[in-house]
């Protein structure tokens, strides 16, 4: 399933917005926060409302790529991100570029079909 990364740039995103971007449940994001120590969104007020920033979205994108797209178990994804973050980042970036290219090609094809 393609990620919904067509978002307007904001300073903070709610857990609901982030869950929708990545087609995840909010509970999945909360679980990932317990399993990946580097994923720590800012919290505000006494209610501890999560406020995700762009850097958090980048972390979630990497985790999502490993766990949901490539099928890694949580422990394997955590180890991979700990040991080879740069390689994982490059792979995730390449995947995102391919997804965007595929979408562009589909739009182009629909325009050609309409002729």
Strand order of the largest sheet: 1-2
Number of helices: 5
As a whole number of angstroms, the C-alpha radius of gyration is 16 Å
Give the tally of structural domains: 1
Sheet-strand content, in percent, reads: 5-15%
The whole-number mean of residue pLDDT values reads: 85
Q: Say what the CATH topology is.
A: Multidrug-efflux Transporter Regulator, Chain: A, Domain 2
Largest sheet: 2 strands, antiparallel
Tell me the CATH architecture. Answer: Orthogonal Bundle
Series of secondary-structure elements, N-terminal to C-terminal: HHEEHHH
What fraction, in percent, of the residue positions are helical? 55-70%
**Which structural class best describes the helix and strand composition?**
mainly alpha
